[in-house]
Write a structure and sequence with these properties.
3 domains; binds beta-D-glucopyranose; TIM Barrel; Rossmann fold; single chain; six-stranded mixed beta sheet
Length: 770
């Protein structure tokens, strides 16, 4: 599909993005002063005049260091001007050794060095889904800033991050890497993260360039099955899935990684509509596009290229500048040019983008821009002193979501005897989550260590593993297929449960740390069953039978189905994979040294069969009404409608009240604004933070619009008894949407406004758009 006729509408949306309400104006490459742009263009055109065809093709080569591509070979290739960029090498020593080769090359064009720094480099922060659960822009910015500083301090120039794919399917393993289901929240976080990585200058020695991924729509793979097809209406695509990528570009992201999936039948890697019409022509992106790992060769398997050679031609012509890892460009571009199947312009345009990115990274000022002098190289790359533990703990605390707290069983008192049980209670590797970059598992704090540190000798802490992650050998072997990520206790399940029960019986309270191992929520880790594995549920059953108060600490990278766990437990704390300082942060919350304030960035279903289930759904002609249930309404008859825990949900150790909504007017004129405000009060006994959320509904429009769509939020901190007015401002442009002709406009009529502390318990008001 090539809807060129829709272009003007697309431009309109993204010149005034939906998330713009609280976002500063865009700063793109076009903001670079004219003289600098001119200097860059002049430099690049002079350089390109000196380059042979081989030199140019070399610049399009993004190589991964690994057994099939040893360092010595890459160093020889750098000397021969055959390498544009390198990834998967992460120490200053190794990068410097490679960069030293540049001086022996003819052209002396330095490669750049990239890595997947998704939620931290040496210090690992909570997984991105957890960061989103903080709804705290300053915490997320802090984590990204430290990531950038540590990444730059390792001599790297670029991170393959943020990952901003909207996803509404928790079966997909990569939900852990993104910011969840919501367009507005993800767009805000995308913008914030890129700004924190790059500042206004990715070349600054302690900044790195962001490479936003995966363009586009990777999070919408059918059935949540990894690498699967995406087929989507244009209105949904542009209303819901595209804005986060655009937000990252508005923040100045220098790179874009192209998705592995197809979009309406055309693989992203050969999709010139996506990569040229939208990305370049409409969004005015001037940076670098890179393929995903081996994606060019994948075009043959997608069934759109007959062979690798044709695939290389298709990718280049579609607008993929660099070829990641499969060297298809290196092998085929020369011959393709000779045979007239690609043009010199196709090659030059890609080379131009690579050189632009290198200029923007400061590599032409010095190949050692981020490396600095040799004297700055750390003696010990993994030295404790290179970590930012304090910040990691502070950020991790903001990401924890209290899902249940019956009779205020939490916070626990630091006295008596506590039994800590579960296969994740003392797992350093799992605390780090997937894509934990250069983080060292041995440096992470487990829940056991965190609780020990919090308790000292004030209380007795007993520990038993209780179960393995899974007793299913097929799953265990899968999780260990690339590295030994999951360890198995050789005892029988019953022996482990018996020990756990004996331990629990000695305690006043049981804290069970259960969920997924980190490898269960990552790339290539889709699940059809999103329960806690059976082995751990058997353990929970036995713990429940002891009659002791049962607190579940959940570690997982996706929404899980937790109805049974919700029934049998007294409290549940969602902790994601919380990173290097996770155990301390979790202990802070368990013992009330920090009051939880996280809110779910994704809906938690009751049953896997409800998927997709998400907040901003459209209405049907026969909506289900829980107050007046009727057979012929939109529902499943075997499971209650609605999620177990809705989007935006999360409890606190205090209580908050929200007043009715005050609107500044009952009508909104095309050029005016309307203010919706509420008073929020801490009615409980301890200080705490909550997230005030604003949702909208366009009651009657030319196409069905979401029943409730997030359009604003503010995290507020209140002392006991304190109250605060929270005000949201809405303008006509905030009410626009794309119809199926991609016309971006609002329509006069009634709009509902909802404000609450989650997406379901809300106050409601309405106004008319004139
Ligand atoms: C992933 C990307 C990642 C790349 C490089 C791919 O398999 O899809 O997200 O950036 O590998 O590590």
């Amino acid at each position: 599909m090539k809807p060129h006729y829709l272009i003007s509408a697309v431009v309109l949306l993204f010149s005034s993005p939906l998330y713009a309400q609280n976002v500063p104006p865009a700063s793109t490459n076009s903001d670079i002063p004219q003289s600098q742009t001119q200097a860059r263009e002049l430099f690049i055109s002079n350089l390109m005049k000196k380059m042979t065809l081989d030199d140019k093709i070399g610049q399009l080569n993004l190589v991964s260091v690994g057994p099939e591509n040893p360092r010595e070979q890459i160093m020889a290739d750098i000397r021969a001007d055959k390498v544009g960029g390198v990834f998967n090498t992460v120490t200053k020593h190794d990068i410097r050794q490679m960069q030293d080769q540049v001086q022996y090359s003819r052209l002396k064009i330095p490669p750049f060095y990239a890595y997947d720094v998704v939620h931290g480099q040496r210090t690992v922060f909570p997984i991105s889904l957890g960061l989103a659960a903080s709804w705290d822009m300053s915490a997320v910015a802090l984590s990204a800033r430290i990531s950038a500083e540590e990444t730059a301090a390792d001599g790297l120039n670029m991170t393959f991050s943020p990952m901003v794919d909207i996803t509404r399917d928790p079966r997909w393993g990569r939900v852990s890497e993104g910011f969840g289901e919501d367009t507005y929240l993800t767009s805000r976080l995308a913008y914030e993260t890129v700004k924190a990585y790059q500042g206004n200058d990715p070349s600054a020695p302690n900044n790195v360039m962001a490479n936003v991924k995966h363009f586009a729509l990777y999070g919408a793979v059918e059935g949540g099955r990894e690498y699967n097809t995406v087929d989507m209406s244009l209105s949904r695509m542009f209303n819901d899935y595209m804005p986060p990528y655009k937000a990252a570009l508005d923040a100045g992201a220098g790179g874009v990684m192209v998705a592995l999936n197809s979009v309406n039948g055309v693989p992203a890697t050969s999709n010139s509509w996506l990569l040229k019409d939208i990305l370049r022509d409409q969004w005015k992106f001037h940076g670098l596009t890179v393929s995903d790992h081996g994606a060019i060769g994948g075009l043959v398997k997608h069934g759109v290229a007959e062979n690798d050679r044709q695939a290389a031609a298709m990718a280049l012509k579609a607008g993929v500048d660099m070829d990641m890892a499969d060297n298809m460009y290196g092998k085929y571009l020369k011959g393709l040019l000779k045979d007239g199947l690609i043009s010199q312009k196709d090659i030059d345009s890609a080379v131009h983008d690579v050189l632009t990115a290198k200029w923007d990274m400061g590599l032409f000022v010095s190949p050692y821009r981020h490396l600095g002098p040799v004297s700055s190289d750390p003696v010990d790359t993994n030295a404790e002193s290179r970590l930012h533990r304090k910040e990691a703990r502070e950020v991790a605390r903001t990401t924890l979501v209290l899902l249940k707290n019956e009779n205020q069983i939490l916070p626990l008192q630091k006295k008596g005897t506590i039994a800590l049980i579960g296969p994740l209670a003392d797992s350093q590797r799992d605390m780090m989550g997937s894509w934990s970059a250069a983080g060292v598992a041995k440096q992470s704090i487990t829940v056991l260590k965190g609780m020990q540190d919090a308790l000292g000798d004030k209380a007795t802490l007993l520990y038993a593993r209780g179960a393995n992650i899974t007793n299913d050998k097929t799953i265990y072997d899968f999780l260990n297929s690339y590295d030994k990520a999951v360890t198995n206790d050789p005892r029988t399940p019953q022996q482990m449960i018996d020990e756990a029960v004996k331990t629990a019986e000695k305690a006043d309270t049981v804290v069970a740390v259960v969920g997924e191992s980190q490898g269960m929520s990552s790339e290539a880790s889709s699940r059809t069953d999103i329960n806690i594995p059976e082995a751990q549920r058997e353990l929970l059953k036995a713990l429940k039978a002891t009659g002791k108060p049962l607190v579940l600490v959940l570690m997982n990278g996706r929404p899980l189905t937790l109805s049974w766990e919700n029934d049998i437990s007294n409290a549940m704390l969602e902790t994601w994979f919380s990173g290097t300082e996770g155990g301390h942060a979790i202990a802070d919350v368990l013992f009330g040294d920090y009051n939880p304030s996280g809110k779910l960035p994704m809906t938690f279903p009751r049953d896997v069969g409800q998927i997709p289930i998400y907040n901003s759904m459209l209405n049907t002609g026969r909506p289900f009404n829980p107050q007046k249930p009727d057979k012929y309404t939109s529902r499943y008859f075997d499971t209650p409608n609605g999620p177990l825990f809705p989007f935006g949900y999360g409890l606190s150790y205090t209580q908050f009240s929200v007043s009715d909504i005050t609107l500044s007017a009952t009508t909104l004129a095309a050029k005016g604004d309307i203010k919706a405000s509420v008073m929020v009060k801490n009615t409980g006994k301890v200080a705490g933070a909550t997230v005030v959320q604003l949702y909208m509904q366009d009651v009657t429009a030319s196409i069905s619009r979401p029943v409730k769509e997030l359009r604003g939020f503010e995290k507020v901190y209140l002392r006991p008894g304190e109250e605060k007015r929270v005000t949201f401002s809405l303008e006509e442009k905030d009410l626009r949407y794309f119809d199926n002709q991609l016309k971006w406009a609002s329509q006069p009529g009634k709009f509902n406004v909802f404000v609450g502390l989650d997406s379901q318990n809300v106050k409601q008001s309405s106004f008319q758009l004139q």
